């Protein structure tokens, strides 16, 4: 008679059971050894190494959710398709990183985008003022039609319909730069990637994020979360309201005094920390090079100065300058005459955009404040031209990108899989969202007698 075998111990089972590899290694790098690190995703040394596993995990979750379901029906046993897509994505990310490093980001964010948005606000108000006039053909033209007459573009029609052929050509040009040559040469692969990107951008993303209710709901959620955190704070004395009636008045005064001292000490520490941070920032900003050395602050020479320089140079006629060299000389070199071509104020387009959004031209007090800010920017232009790029590059750090990637992972894949799609609210719900946003006031002393600023 055979004796029954004893059950295996916990230690033996824990030794024999292999450790489960992360999803990114199992799906994207199946041939990678378990102890080997991830391949570097970014070529820049300024990017933290902690960003690679998080971004690889996000890519693996996206491929498992959107590619594996339909590819497993086509070829169930093919395990090389997902790693091949990951290889192409790595190449695209590295190409985009190289181009972002060459981009003049301060000029894009502080100059180009504010100028475009300011022009959009002005054209919108101009179109709204022509609704009940003869410009609208007796009221037959709608507001989108009048706005489209002021800013016609082939990418979008007057009814808000996106031109898919226009965006198809744009994506094709981007793929020509981003994809490897052997992948771009394959028409089937290029067309599949192009149509997938078009479907994601034109069908799933752009029609939703450009809706007013989506923008208003995002602002409402951002402001509501901050106010809920501030509103959830319950003072320690409020929980014991029933017992305060039995306490002595001297104890109440002592508690009030101690709480006042605590608040004053906290405010003093915050002021000291802000002062030290401001002093450190000012010192680091003053050590930066002169603004004129950046291409952002250079100005093209006037034709009169160019003609005088050409006439004074004997070899200018015998050695004509190519257009590329002339453009690089005009826009790449710092001007030597700082008095005749002053440096542009980097904060000025942002202030113009803010005044256009708030419509300060029709409000006397706001117009006075805006004029004072104009004078302040004019006086502090050299310092602000150093400070704003410094603050931008400091905020766009590896920690910021890491937190942004983790937030995108939690939002898009809360349980490892895509969350339920957001349903479009009805017209009544959209009106309620807009009313809540207009009626919202900032918390604290700034919320007292604050007029609604979101009306256009």
What does this structure look like?
By secondary structure, the chain is an all-alpha fold. It has a domain at 21-103. 62% of the residues lie in helices and 0% in strands. It has 20 helices and no strands. It has helices at residues 10-16, 23-27, 51-66, 68-74, 81-102, 105-129, 143-150, 164-178, 181-185, 187-209, 212-231, 241-244, 249-286, 303-312, 323-332, 348-358, 364-379, 381-395, 398-412, 427-439. The radius of gyration is 30 Å and the shape is globular. The chain starts with 9 loop residues before the first helix and ends in a 17-residue tail after the last helix. Residues 311-323 have a biased composition (Low complexity). GO terms for molecular function: phosphatidylinositol binding. Residues 1-20, 293-339 are annotated as: Disordered. Residues 10-19 have a biased composition (Polar residues). This is PXA domain-containing protein.
In the predicted model, the low-confidence regions spanning at least 5 consecutive residues are: 228-244, 292-341, 444-456
Strand content: under 5%
Identify the overall geometry. Answer: globular
Q: Profile the largest sheet.
A: none
Distance N terminus to C terminus? 92 Å
Question: SSE order in H/E notation?
Answer: HHHHHHHHHHHHHHHHHHHH
- Based on secondary structure, the structural category is mainly alpha
Number of separate helices: 20
Number of strands: 0
- Radius of gyration (Å): 30 Å
Query: Could you tell me the mean pLDDT?
Result: 76
Helix content: 55-70%
């Amino acid at each position: 008679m055979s004796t029954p075998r004893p059950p295996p111990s916990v230690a033996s089972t824990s030794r024999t059971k292999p450790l489960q590899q992360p999803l990114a290694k199992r799906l994207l790098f199946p041939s990678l050894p378990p102890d080997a690190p991830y391949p570097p995703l970014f070529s820049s040394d300024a990017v933290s190494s902690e960003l690679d596993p998080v971004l690889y995990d996000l890519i693996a979750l996206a491929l498992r959710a959107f590619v594996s379901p339909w590819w497993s029906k086509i070829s169930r046993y093919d395990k090389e398709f997902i790693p091949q897509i990951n290889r192409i994505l790595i190449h695209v990310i590295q190409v985009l990183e190289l181009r972002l490093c060459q981009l003049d980001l301060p000029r894009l964010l502080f100059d180009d985008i504010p100028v475009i948005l300011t022009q959009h606000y002005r054209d919108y108000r101009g179109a709204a003022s022509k609704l009940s006039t003869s410009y609208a053909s007796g009221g037959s033209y709608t507001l989108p039609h009048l706005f489209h007459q002021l800013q016609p573009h082939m990418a979008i029609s007057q009814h808000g319909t996106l031109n898919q052929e226009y965006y198809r050509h744009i994506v094709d040009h981007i793929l020509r730069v981003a994809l490897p040559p052997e992948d771009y040469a394959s028409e089937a692969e290029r067309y599949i990637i192009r149509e997938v990107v078009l479907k994601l951008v034109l069908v799933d993303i752009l029609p939703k994020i450009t809706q007013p209710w989506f923008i208003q709901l995002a602002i409402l959620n951002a402001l509501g979360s901050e106010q809920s955190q501030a509103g959830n704070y319950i003072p320690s004395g409020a929980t014991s309201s029933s017992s305060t009636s039995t306490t002595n008045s001297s104890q109440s005064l002592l508690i009030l005094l101690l709480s006042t001292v605590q608040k004053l000490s906290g405010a003093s520490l915050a002021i000291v920390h802000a002062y030290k941070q401001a002093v450190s920032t000012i010192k680091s900003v003053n050590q930066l090079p002169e603004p004129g050395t950046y291409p952002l602050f250079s100005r093209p020479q006037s034709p009169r100065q160019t003609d005088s320089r050409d006439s004074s140079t004997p070899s200018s006629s015998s050695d004509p300058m190519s257009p590329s060299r002339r453009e690089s000389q005009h826009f790449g070199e710092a001007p030597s005459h700082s008095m005749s071509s002053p440096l542009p104020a980097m904060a000025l387009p942002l202030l113009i955009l803010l005044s256009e959004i708030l419509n300060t031209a029709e409000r006397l007090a706001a117009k006075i404040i805006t004029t004072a800010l104009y004078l302040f920017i004019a006086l502090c232009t050299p310092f602000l031209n150093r400070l704003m790029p410094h603050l931008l590059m400091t905020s766009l750090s590896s920690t910021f990108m890491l937190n942004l990637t983790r937030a995108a992972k939690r939002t898009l894949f809360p349980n490892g899989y895509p969350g339920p799609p957001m349903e479009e609210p009805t017209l009544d719900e959209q009106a309620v969202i807009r009313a809540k946003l207009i009626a919202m006031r900032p918390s604290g002393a700034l919320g007292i007698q604050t007029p609604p600023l979101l009306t256009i």
